[in-house]
Write a structure and sequence with these properties.
2 domains, alpha+beta, 294 residues, Folate-binding protein YgfZ, 33% strand, YgfZ/GcvT, YgfZ/GCV_T_CS, Gyrase A, domain 2
Protein backbone atom coordinates (compact mmCIF):
# COMPACT_ATOMS: atom_id res chain seq x y z
CA UNK A 1 0.00 0.00 0.00
CA UNK A 2 0.99 3.66 -0.14
CA UNK A 3 3.30 4.91 2.57
CA UNK A 4 0.89 7.77 3.17
CA UNK A 5 -1.55 7.35 6.03
CA UNK A 6 -5.12 7.07 4.64
CA UNK A 7 -6.34 9.47 7.33
CA UNK A 8 -4.09 12.31 6.16
CA UNK A 9 -4.62 12.26 2.38
CA UNK A 10 -7.14 14.79 1.07
CA UNK A 11 -9.96 16.65 2.85
CA UNK A 12 -12.19 14.35 4.89
CA UNK A 13 -15.93 14.65 5.39
CA UNK A 14 -17.09 13.43 8.79
CA UNK A 15 -19.98 10.97 8.39
CA UNK A 16 -21.44 10.72 11.90
CA UNK A 17 -24.45 8.59 10.85
CA UNK A 18 -22.13 5.74 9.92
CA UNK A 19 -21.08 3.26 12.59
CA UNK A 20 -18.82 0.22 12.86
CA UNK A 21 -19.94 -3.06 14.41
CA UNK A 22 -17.20 -5.55 15.26
CA UNK A 23 -17.49 -9.34 15.40
CA UNK A 24 -14.57 -11.02 17.16
CA UNK A 25 -13.86 -14.64 18.05
CA UNK A 26 -13.08 -18.00 16.54
CA UNK A 27 -16.64 -18.36 15.20
CA UNK A 28 -16.97 -14.83 13.81
CA UNK A 29 -16.75 -15.90 10.17
CA UNK A 30 -18.91 -19.02 10.55
CA UNK A 31 -21.58 -17.04 12.42
CA UNK A 32 -21.57 -14.27 9.81
CA UNK A 33 -21.67 -16.77 6.94
CA UNK A 34 -24.84 -18.25 8.44
CA UNK A 35 -26.51 -14.85 8.98
CA UNK A 36 -25.49 -12.47 6.20
CA UNK A 37 -26.51 -12.55 2.56
CA UNK A 38 -23.11 -12.48 0.87
CA UNK A 39 -20.45 -15.19 0.71
CA UNK A 40 -17.76 -14.33 3.25
CA UNK A 41 -15.86 -17.45 2.20
CA UNK A 42 -14.56 -15.66 -0.90
CA UNK A 43 -12.81 -12.97 1.17
CA UNK A 44 -9.17 -13.12 2.19
CA UNK A 45 -7.78 -11.09 5.07
CA UNK A 46 -7.68 -7.44 3.97
CA UNK A 47 -10.66 -7.68 1.59
CA UNK A 48 -14.24 -6.40 1.80
CA UNK A 49 -17.63 -6.73 0.16
CA UNK A 50 -21.10 -5.24 0.27
CA UNK A 51 -23.50 -7.39 2.25
CA UNK A 52 -26.61 -7.21 4.40
CA UNK A 53 -28.90 -8.96 6.82
CA UNK A 54 -32.35 -10.19 5.78
CA UNK A 55 -35.55 -11.22 7.49
CA UNK A 56 -36.67 -14.85 6.98
CA UNK A 57 -38.97 -13.46 4.27
CA UNK A 58 -35.96 -12.10 2.38
CA UNK A 59 -36.45 -8.41 3.20
CA UNK A 60 -33.43 -6.20 3.83
CA UNK A 61 -32.99 -5.19 7.47
CA UNK A 62 -29.68 -3.40 6.94
CA UNK A 63 -26.93 -2.99 4.36
CA UNK A 64 -23.25 -2.67 5.16
CA UNK A 65 -19.68 -2.96 3.98
CA UNK A 66 -18.18 -6.11 5.53
CA UNK A 67 -14.41 -6.05 6.10
CA UNK A 68 -12.38 -9.15 6.93
CA UNK A 69 -9.59 -7.88 9.18
CA UNK A 70 -8.33 -11.39 9.98
CA UNK A 71 -9.62 -14.94 10.55
CA UNK A 72 -11.32 -13.92 13.81
CA UNK A 73 -12.25 -10.28 13.22
CA UNK A 74 -14.89 -8.71 10.99
CA UNK A 75 -15.98 -5.09 10.77
CA UNK A 76 -19.44 -4.09 9.55
CA UNK A 77 -19.64 -0.47 8.39
CA UNK A 78 -23.32 0.56 8.52
CA UNK A 79 -24.11 3.68 6.43
CA UNK A 80 -27.50 4.37 8.00
CA UNK A 81 -27.12 4.00 11.73
CA UNK A 82 -29.34 1.70 13.73
CA UNK A 83 -26.20 -0.11 14.89
CA UNK A 84 -27.33 -0.59 18.49
CA UNK A 85 -30.57 -2.29 17.44
CA UNK A 86 -28.71 -4.49 14.94
CA UNK A 87 -26.21 -5.57 17.60
CA UNK A 88 -29.01 -6.56 19.98
CA UNK A 89 -30.79 -8.57 17.29
CA UNK A 90 -27.60 -10.32 16.18
CA UNK A 91 -26.77 -11.30 19.75
CA UNK A 92 -30.08 -13.14 19.89
CA UNK A 93 -28.72 -15.62 17.32
CA UNK A 94 -25.38 -16.33 18.99
CA UNK A 95 -26.43 -19.35 21.04
CA UNK A 96 -23.08 -21.07 21.78
CA UNK A 97 -21.04 -19.36 19.06
CA UNK A 98 -17.69 -18.04 20.25
CA UNK A 99 -18.25 -14.49 19.04
CA UNK A 100 -18.47 -11.10 20.71
CA UNK A 101 -20.55 -8.47 18.89
CA UNK A 102 -20.45 -4.78 19.71
CA UNK A 103 -20.20 -1.23 18.43
CA UNK A 104 -16.67 0.14 18.41
CA UNK A 105 -17.37 3.58 19.85
CA UNK A 106 -13.79 4.64 19.21
CA UNK A 107 -13.98 4.23 15.44
CA UNK A 108 -15.18 7.10 13.28
CA UNK A 109 -16.08 7.13 9.58
CA UNK A 110 -15.20 9.79 7.03
CA UNK A 111 -15.26 10.11 3.26
CA UNK A 112 -13.59 12.10 0.55
CA UNK A 113 -14.28 12.80 -3.12
CA UNK A 114 -10.81 11.73 -4.22
CA UNK A 115 -9.20 8.49 -5.29
CA UNK A 116 -8.11 6.18 -2.50
CA UNK A 117 -4.42 6.48 -1.70
CA UNK A 118 -3.72 2.82 -1.04
CA UNK A 119 -6.96 0.80 -1.37
CA UNK A 120 -7.98 -0.70 -4.70
CA UNK A 121 -11.15 -2.56 -5.62
CA UNK A 122 -12.17 -4.91 -2.83
CA UNK A 123 -8.76 -4.73 -1.11
CA UNK A 124 -8.68 -2.20 1.69
CA UNK A 125 -5.58 -0.42 2.98
CA UNK A 126 -4.90 -0.74 6.70
CA UNK A 127 -2.48 0.92 9.09
CA UNK A 128 -3.39 -0.27 12.59
CA UNK A 129 -6.98 0.78 13.26
CA UNK A 130 -6.97 3.15 10.29
CA UNK A 131 -8.61 1.59 7.24
CA UNK A 132 -9.27 3.00 3.79
CA UNK A 133 -11.82 1.69 1.26
CA UNK A 134 -11.98 2.47 -2.45
CA UNK A 135 -15.56 3.53 -3.29
CA UNK A 136 -15.34 4.84 -6.81
CA UNK A 137 -13.86 4.67 -10.26
CA UNK A 138 -12.67 7.11 -12.89
CA UNK A 139 -14.34 10.50 -12.83
CA UNK A 140 -16.48 9.52 -9.83
CA UNK A 141 -13.64 8.68 -7.47
CA UNK A 142 -14.53 8.37 -3.78
CA UNK A 143 -12.88 6.79 -0.78
CA UNK A 144 -13.89 6.07 2.79
CA UNK A 145 -11.76 6.10 5.93
CA UNK A 146 -12.42 4.35 9.25
CA UNK A 147 -10.11 5.47 12.04
CA UNK A 148 -9.86 6.36 15.73
CA UNK A 149 -8.81 9.98 15.26
CA UNK A 150 -10.91 11.59 12.53
CA UNK A 151 -9.65 15.13 11.92
CA UNK A 152 -12.85 16.47 10.37
CA UNK A 153 -15.92 18.28 11.65
CA UNK A 154 -19.46 17.44 10.48
CA UNK A 155 -20.44 19.54 7.46
CA UNK A 156 -24.12 19.26 6.56
CA UNK A 157 -23.58 20.32 2.94
CA UNK A 158 -20.75 17.84 2.43
CA UNK A 159 -22.75 15.03 4.10
CA UNK A 160 -25.67 15.81 1.75
CA UNK A 161 -23.35 15.63 -1.29
CA UNK A 162 -22.05 12.27 -0.04
CA UNK A 163 -25.57 10.90 0.26
CA UNK A 164 -26.41 12.14 -3.24
CA UNK A 165 -23.34 10.32 -4.58
CA UNK A 166 -24.41 7.11 -2.79
CA UNK A 167 -27.80 7.17 -4.49
CA UNK A 168 -26.30 8.02 -7.87
CA UNK A 169 -24.09 4.94 -7.49
CA UNK A 170 -27.12 2.78 -6.64
CA UNK A 171 -26.43 2.34 -2.91
CA UNK A 172 -29.83 2.52 -1.17
CA UNK A 173 -29.81 4.56 2.02
CA UNK A 174 -32.39 3.02 4.34
CA UNK A 175 -34.45 5.15 6.68
CA UNK A 176 -36.34 3.21 9.36
CA UNK A 177 -39.62 3.13 7.42
CA UNK A 178 -37.89 1.38 4.50
CA UNK A 179 -36.22 -1.39 6.49
CA UNK A 180 -37.69 -4.89 6.08
CA UNK A 181 -39.67 -3.77 3.03
CA UNK A 182 -37.56 -4.79 0.03
CA UNK A 183 -35.80 -7.87 -1.32
CA UNK A 184 -32.18 -7.61 -2.52
CA UNK A 185 -33.37 -7.92 -6.13
CA UNK A 186 -35.89 -5.11 -5.71
CA UNK A 187 -33.00 -2.92 -4.51
CA UNK A 188 -30.89 -4.05 -7.52
CA UNK A 189 -28.16 -5.20 -5.15
CA UNK A 190 -26.78 -7.56 -7.79
CA UNK A 191 -25.16 -4.38 -9.20
CA UNK A 192 -23.05 -4.22 -6.04
CA UNK A 193 -22.51 -8.00 -5.94
CA UNK A 194 -23.97 -7.72 -2.43
CA UNK A 195 -25.70 -11.10 -2.12
CA UNK A 196 -25.08 -14.75 -2.97
CA UNK A 197 -27.51 -17.24 -4.47
CA UNK A 198 -25.06 -20.16 -4.26
CA UNK A 199 -23.73 -20.29 -0.71
CA UNK A 200 -25.41 -22.22 2.11
CA UNK A 201 -28.42 -21.20 4.12
CA UNK A 202 -28.94 -17.77 5.64
CA UNK A 203 -32.15 -15.95 6.62
CA UNK A 204 -34.16 -15.26 3.47
CA UNK A 205 -31.84 -17.31 1.25
CA UNK A 206 -34.60 -19.53 -0.14
CA UNK A 207 -36.62 -16.54 -1.35
CA UNK A 208 -33.56 -14.80 -2.80
CA UNK A 209 -32.41 -17.93 -4.64
CA UNK A 210 -35.88 -18.82 -5.92
CA UNK A 211 -36.37 -15.30 -7.26
CA UNK A 212 -33.02 -15.52 -9.03
CA UNK A 213 -33.21 -18.99 -10.52
CA UNK A 214 -36.87 -18.79 -11.55
CA UNK A 215 -36.42 -15.37 -13.09
CA UNK A 216 -39.11 -13.81 -10.92
CA UNK A 217 -37.39 -10.47 -10.28
CA UNK A 218 -39.94 -8.01 -11.64
CA UNK A 219 -38.79 -4.78 -9.99
CA UNK A 220 -35.56 -2.91 -9.47
CA UNK A 221 -34.13 0.49 -8.66
CA UNK A 222 -34.57 3.58 -10.79
CA UNK A 223 -32.75 6.88 -10.17
CA UNK A 224 -35.05 9.89 -10.35
CA UNK A 225 -34.20 13.59 -10.44
CA UNK A 226 -36.47 16.54 -9.75
CA UNK A 227 -36.40 20.32 -9.40
CA UNK A 228 -37.78 20.04 -5.87
CA UNK A 229 -37.35 17.66 -2.90
CA UNK A 230 -38.86 14.20 -3.40
CA UNK A 231 -40.65 12.73 -0.33
CA UNK A 232 -39.60 9.23 0.71
CA UNK A 233 -42.49 6.77 0.55
CA UNK A 234 -44.25 8.64 -2.26
CA UNK A 235 -45.93 6.85 -5.15
CA UNK A 236 -44.34 7.06 -8.58
CA UNK A 237 -46.95 7.26 -11.32
CA UNK A 238 -46.99 7.14 -15.12
CA UNK A 239 -49.99 7.87 -17.29
CA UNK A 240 -52.06 8.22 -14.13
CA UNK A 241 -51.19 4.75 -12.83
CA UNK A 242 -49.07 3.86 -9.83
CA UNK A 243 -45.82 2.14 -10.81
CA UNK A 244 -43.90 1.94 -7.56
CA UNK A 245 -42.58 3.81 -4.54
CA UNK A 246 -39.73 6.13 -3.61
CA UNK A 247 -37.55 4.37 -1.01
CA UNK A 248 -34.49 6.62 -0.64
CA UNK A 249 -33.98 10.35 -1.17
CA UNK A 250 -31.18 12.91 -1.10
CA UNK A 251 -30.80 16.63 -1.74
CA UNK A 252 -27.74 18.83 -2.07
CA UNK A 253 -27.91 22.47 -3.16
CA UNK A 254 -30.41 22.47 -6.05
CA UNK A 255 -29.97 18.75 -6.79
CA UNK A 256 -32.86 16.54 -5.65
CA UNK A 257 -32.73 12.83 -6.41
CA UNK A 258 -34.36 9.60 -5.28
CA UNK A 259 -34.19 5.86 -5.69
CA UNK A 260 -37.53 4.24 -6.45
CA UNK A 261 -38.51 0.59 -6.83
CA UNK A 262 -40.21 0.32 -10.23
CA UNK A 263 -41.13 -2.47 -12.69
CA UNK A 264 -38.20 -3.62 -14.80
CA UNK A 265 -40.53 -3.74 -17.80
CA UNK A 266 -41.98 -0.29 -18.34
CA UNK A 267 -42.04 2.25 -21.18
CA UNK A 268 -38.56 3.66 -21.71
CA UNK A 269 -38.01 7.43 -21.36
CA UNK A 270 -39.33 9.34 -24.36
CA UNK A 271 -41.98 6.79 -25.31
CA UNK A 272 -45.73 7.35 -24.82
CA UNK A 273 -46.83 6.68 -21.25
CA UNK A 274 -43.27 6.90 -19.92
CA UNK A 275 -43.44 10.32 -18.24
CA UNK A 276 -42.97 9.82 -14.49
CA UNK A 277 -44.59 11.86 -11.72
CA UNK A 278 -44.16 12.02 -7.96
CA UNK A 279 -46.68 13.96 -5.88
CA UNK A 280 -47.90 15.74 -9.00
CA UNK A 281 -44.41 16.90 -10.04
CA UNK A 282 -42.50 15.62 -13.04
CA UNK A 283 -39.34 13.62 -12.40
CA UNK A 284 -36.66 12.55 -14.84
CA UNK A 285 -35.10 9.10 -14.84
CA UNK A 286 -31.30 9.09 -14.96
CA UNK A 287 -28.88 6.16 -15.37
CA UNK A 288 -27.28 4.68 -12.27
CA UNK A 289 -23.51 5.09 -12.18
CA UNK A 290 -21.12 2.17 -12.01
CA UNK A 291 -18.30 2.06 -9.53
CA UNK A 292 -19.47 0.57 -6.22
CA UNK A 293 -19.43 -3.11 -7.22
CA UNK A 294 -16.68 -4.95 -5.30
Amino acid sequence: MSDKSPATVGPLIALPEQAVITLRGRDAIAFSQAQFMNDIGVLADGEWQWSGWLTPKGRVITLFALLRRDAETLWLMLPDGGAEAIVQRLRGYLFRSKVTIGIDEGLRVGGRFTQASGARGNTFAADGDTVELDLGTGEHARSLVICTGLDALPDDDAIARWRVADLQDGLPRLVDTEREQWTPQQLSLERLQAFSVKKGCYPGQEIVARTHFLGKAKRGLALLASGSPIPVGSDVTADGKSLGRVMSVASASDKHIALAVLPLERPQPGLPGSALMVDGASVIEAPLRDGLAR
